[in-house]
Amino acid sequence: MSTSLALPAAGPGFLDPEWLISTFGLIGILAIVFAESGLLVGFFFPGDSLLFTAGLLVADGRYLQQPLWLVCLLVAVAAIAGDQVGYLFGKRVGPSLFRRPNSRLFKQENVQRANDFFARYGARSIVLARFVPVVRTFTPIIAGVSRMRYRTFLIYNVLGGALWGIGVTVLGYFLGQIAFVKSNIEFIVLVSVLPIGIQLLRSRHRRAGTGHPEAVRARVTTAENGSTS
């Protein structure tokens, strides 16, 4: 039975997961996952809700006709590749990232959040950050800036990319076959995109220049020493 996903908007219309999937299909999902996983401009994409909705639509048979295993495999590869690019970018730009001025698509506060997360959890942050919007975009970049050992990063990157990409998609697939979920799908997906909407509102209302680059750079140095020891 086909499930209608008339999702309410939790932010700009172009961030609606169903619209993204119906418009761009699997290629669009992979491009967004790649961008959100390691490109500075990808932090605002709704990765969690997008993968959850993709699983629902695979189960439903609308928009996505590919088998679940193929969708999961490609999503995991895109997530891992995105983090790889983020790590290499961070390693290339180094501490100059913390001197980059704020702009519409770049906020020092996001870098600071990711740096705090990385300093707190070390190598595990590469896995844990996958499940934290915004932080997951900047954490691999911070790992590169901090010169985290590449072999260590690669192991945690593959593990995190697989757990997130496959886990959230499979969760959507199986929950989408439960009657209660089907009857409350609008509310469930709305809840999943709320963190993105909240983050957009917080970024919009927060004063420019609240980040403290010098303090952030100091924490990167600490994280670097801890990750290479």
Structure description:
- The chain has 229 residues and is mainly alpha-helical.
- Helices cover 69% and strands 0% of the residues.
- It has one domain (13-228).
- It has ten helices and no strands.
- It has helices spanning 17-38, 47-60, 68-93, 108-121, 125-128, 135-145, 150-175, 179-183, 185-205, 213-228.
- Helix 1 (17-38) packs across helix 2 and helix 4 crosses helix 6 (135-145).
Q: Which terms summarize this structure?
A:
disordered C terminus; mainly alpha; 229 residues
What's the number of helices?
10
Assembly category:
single chain
- Count of DSSP E strands? 0
Described by the principal axes of the CA atoms, the overall outline is: elongated
Concise structural overview:
With about 230 residues, this protein is mostly helical. Helix content is about 70%, strand content about 0%. It is elongated and about 50 Å long.
Topology:
Elements: H1 17-38, H2 47-60, H3 68-93, H4 108-121, H5 125-128, H6 135-145, H7 150-175, H8 179-183, H9 185-205, H10 213-228
